[in-house]
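Pasting as-is:
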Amino acid sequence: MAYEGSALRMAPEKTSAPPAPLTADRWARLDGDPGCYAIHMDARGDLLGVSQALCRRLGFAPGDLAGAPVAALLHPDHRRTDRAHRILVGRTGELVELEFSEQRLPGGEVLWVTSAAADNEVEPQQADDDLRRLLDHLTDAILLLDGEGRVRYLNPAAASLLEQDSGEEATGRYWRDLLAVTDHAEQMVADCLAGREGSERTLTLRVGNRYRRAALACSPLPGAHGADGAVIRVTTGRGAGLDEEIVYRARHDAVTGLHNRWEFETRLDERLHDGQSSSLALLDLDRFKAVNDHAGHAAGDALLRRVASALTARLRAGDELARLGGDEFALLLPDCEPEAAAELLQETLAGLLANPFCFDGQQFAIGFSAGIAPVQGDDPRAVLAAADRACYRAKAAGRGRVAVAIGETSPAG
């Protein structure tokens, strides 16, 4: 049985606060910042303000654009790009391409903000200073990466989201150590670090013991000789109503409703540090493939649910049961030595398997092979591997058996 994965314990996510209005003081800071390109519009798309730095870059005087539709600034091709990428048209027809961070405000108003650092005409050191000064004021979480994928800057919003005391604390760490995502975002970042086109996707973000839905966008940072790193933008707070469902799905198996492998490994890791003598049992259904092959996957799912229900009914207080995937179940037995766990498991399985499994007029004899290992050491995966090897020996000895692993909770060489 192959077993891999990692887990983090979750608590329900708090409902996101409503967006804050754009105050006059904040707009004044954005408007007066020479390194800030900002566009403020109402719900209809009419301009309420364009920052002085962006007006100068586009060749307009402050006030020229007040009340005009934002479409007057946008080249028609901007609709073919992603929602963060905009192509602006200057007074003389010059095209200026920029990556904006979009912030939704009360009343349907929208704020686009980016840095003059995105403009190739800005000197490198000034661009870097301007970029960091601007990013400090953004509500989106921003991570700037070097060419190796290590963090060289976190803005305050990112430090807060990732539970870092400060951006300096994260400097030099690999981005994946800070930003844990349950979907595979590595390729997105790798593409940007290689200088390829950026992309954006919605995914599930793990922060400490919490899960939440987020939009992650990644873009390459241009340098003198190609990509000089990447910028990651994380936007949360939209679709907050999905959080409860996301949390449940992240913790539970879809077929049986039991805890899944991520959540189980979290519980196992806790047991490794609680000082009790606990045991881990891995249970593998015998002849499960025959049920699927002869009666279909609906029958297989029904069998899994029956086994889950029967095992749950026989749990002691404090026991933890999970489905790891396929026909594999895991049982964590606190305050129980491996030999006692083996006896308990034999009795439990004997009662469970006394009757054949029936589906759509067909009967199937089912069985279990199980491996038990002591919960000891500091690596949950080593404990799982020891129980896995014991389960393999049980199957090899004729199925329907329980084998105990003693002194095997270190990784196999």
